[in-house]
Amino acid sequence: MADLKPKSEISFAGTFFSSAFAACFAELCTIPLDTAKVRLQLQKKTAVGEGIGVTKYRGTLDTVVTIAREEGYAALWKGIVPGLHRQFVYGGLRIGLYDLVKVFLLGSSYMGEVSLFINILAALLTGALAIAVANPTDLVKVRLQAEGKLPLGVPRRYSSAFHAYYTIVRQEGFTALWTGLGPNIARNAIINAAELASYDQVKQTILKLPGFTDSVLTHLLAGLGAGFFAVCIGSPVDVVKSRMMGDSSYRSTIDCFIKTLKNEGFFAFYKGFVPNFGRIGSWNMVMFLTLEQVS
What we know:
amino acid transmembrane transporter activity; 10 helices; stress response; globular; 295 residues; Mitochondrial carrier fold; mainly alpha; Mitochondrial substrate/solute carrier; two-stranded antiparallel ribbon
């Protein structure tokens, strides 16, 4: 991915479907960690006694175990259908368009290694464009994952992914499918840039080390590095995005950011960091390894 291919060698359809397949496979493997991450990001302290707060979930493993015990193992895969919808559309577009955007920025006659700046700029653009198209699938996935935090006895709003799409449109209007679009564009543009640009950069660095070749190990290490940079950079906007999609009480992105900062402090923006890194790190390892094999 690091070198710019001649335009004639780029097949958008081939890259799109290869990327979509790799993204969907990674989603299927890692969505339990994503469910844990969303629950941790959405949870708020409950007052008990005077000034004492308790939380239901305490860490990644406890969240996974609690969900499985109280709701069944299948609950860990809640949101998998819209998750696959999202990865097919978003994953296919963000990577399928990546090289094409670099060609657009540099010109079709350019040959050779692409600079880090161009890699970042291309990834920012493709991430923003792809999630603007895929936002409804992301919204439904978060809503379904958030269902489990409702108190016992409270009826669930959605019976399936397609029922969720229908209910949201009927009750909130068609444009409600793009709730949280602002932070979602910010989050996915930033994370896409961190993932794709850092993958290229880490891979180039590893290949310069003695004994390393363009192998499975290199792809796994580069994918893990991409995931780490993505989580460090993207966690704050990821928390705001999850809260806006899972909780309709926030009036805007700024309102969500200010309330979270005021009520819970700066480190609230890194809630779910461990499951987020576990999720995105493993997701990137699986996705890039799969993509390298099928493309």
